[in-house]
Specification:
mainly alpha, two-stranded antiparallel ribbon, 11% strand, rod-shaped
Length: 206
């Protein structure tokens, strides 16, 4: 009886030991990621590409310092007279409205201190309320001309940015357009499914 128990214990030890060895042999440790491991999706940009991406910022910065300078940087010389022509036109509108605003303001102030009297004989036909209304109209047009100047300043900044952003796009007749059948593979409910379709390819020279 004792021999049978001893034999049974030996057999159980052998089974347990073989099970442990089999589990250890199937285990494969995962490789550790070191600092020297390179990233697959890493994109390296050369100096030429970096210079191209820097052009819009340079153009905007130049136009912010001096309007029209960004257009010169983009070699759009013909836009410089348009830029300064726009500013000159807005400046003339501002000066016109500011001058007449001051004239009617003085007339309104004089009539406020001297009722039933007129400082300028040319305005004798206008009532006090009419003088104030004309004064306010010139002041409103003057303020609108200031807003127009700020808006035009922003427009020339945007124009410099857009020209610098797309100055390398090829708009010649060498652009190619190609249609071909494709078989894209999609993932639906964790299963790869292929579906036929039509692909479009447009080639742009940068």
């Amino acid at each position: 009886m004792t021999g049978k128990i001893t034999l049974f214990v030996i057999v159980m030890c052998i089974c347990v030991q073989s099970n442990v060895f089999s589990q250890n042999s199937d285990t494969i440790p995962a490789p550790r990621k070191g600092k020297s491991q390179t990233t697959v999706n890493e994109v390296v940009k050369d100096s030429a590409r970096l210079a191209v991406e820097e052009r819009p910022r340079i153009a905007v910065r130049k136009s912010a310092i001096l309007p029209g300078l960004g257009q010169i940087y983009n070699k759009r010389w013909w836009k410089v007279p348009l830029v300064y022509g726009g500013f000159v036109g807005i400046g003339l509108v501002f000066e016109f409205n500011q001058r007449y605003y001051q004239i009617f303001l003085k007339e309104a102030q004089f009539r406020e201190l001297n009722p039933k009297m007129t400082q300028n004989p040319l305005f004798a036909q206008y009532s006090r309320e009419g003088i104030i209304e004309i004064k306010d109209s010139y002041r409103r047009n003057r303020d609108l001309s200031i807003l127009a100047g700020v808006g035009f300043y922003a427009i020339q900044l945007i124009d410099a940015y857009v020209d610098a952003k797309f100055f390398r796009f090829d708009v010649s007749d060498d652009l190619s357009f190609k249609i071909e059948p494709v078989m894209p593979v999609g993932n639906i409910y964790n299963a790869s499914v292929s579906s036929p379709g039509i692909g479009f390819k447009v080639k742009l020279a940068l």
